[in-house]
Amino acid sequence: MNLLKTALTFDDVLLVPAHSTTMPKEVSLKTQLTKNITLNTPILSAAMDTVTEARLAIAIAQEGGIGIIHKN
User: Closest by alpha carbon to 30, among 21, 43, 19?
Assistant: First the structure.
């Protein structure tokens, strides 16, 4: 069973500005986080007590992302 999939980091990608005929409303940012969780916006916050509390987690969730709340 092969669990490893191809993945990219920031160093693997270079975005070059160019003209595009794609309209923003035609673009989907949906991301498969786990087998059962799909995010509409690929935003995850850090599970740090100085970063993510309930208010931020709720705000991110309302935008389609997920806030990871710390356990401290």
Answer: 43
